[in-house]
Structures are given as C-alpha cells and as structure tokens.
Amino acid sequence: MKLDEKxxxxxxxxDPFGSVQQQEPAIQQEDLTIPFRLDxxxxxxxxxxxxxxxxxxxxxxxxxxxxxxxxxxxxxNDQIRIRYKYLTVYMKIGGALVE
Length: 99
Hints:
This protein is mainly β. The protein has strands spanning about 35-45, 45-55, 55-60, 65, 70-75, 80-85, 85-90, 95-99.
C-alpha cells in the first residue's frame, strides 16, 4: 500500500509554537514607565479597591481589571500587582515600584 504524498513521513519537525514568539525585545523593570500612580487602597472586608491617579483623573480599580495595556491582577493591603506583557511588578502607595 502506497500513501499519498501529503501523508508521507517527514524527517523535519514543525514547531507548533513557532509563530507565537515574542515580537518585541524583553522589557526590564528599569525600562518600564507606568502611566498611573497608586494613591491609596480602600479595604471593605475581604475586598480591596485601589485608588489610582491617571492622566484622565482618579479611578477605582479592583482585582483583575485593566488600565490600557496594564493588567491589575491583585490589590493587596499596601500594594498592587501589575502585569505588562511578560513582566510583573508591584507598586506601593505613592507610586514606587518594588520587587
């Protein structure tokens, strides 16, 4: 039995994730400029809400919300966790980035 050409075994392997590669160079924390500042955090039982100053004015943000390209994944008692592309940073009240 002879198989059609399209079903023949190939020696070379195709990388299924080859097209999902980082198109931009990696961003370092030192190069990151975040366009907002954490001004405060309001605690309501087990939920925290961050008060953020942006160029458009203050905003109230809770867990799993975005501001532009920045994803706020966690609002803690004294800081928020921000994810931007492949980088995760923490911002304390006042706008200072910490590790």
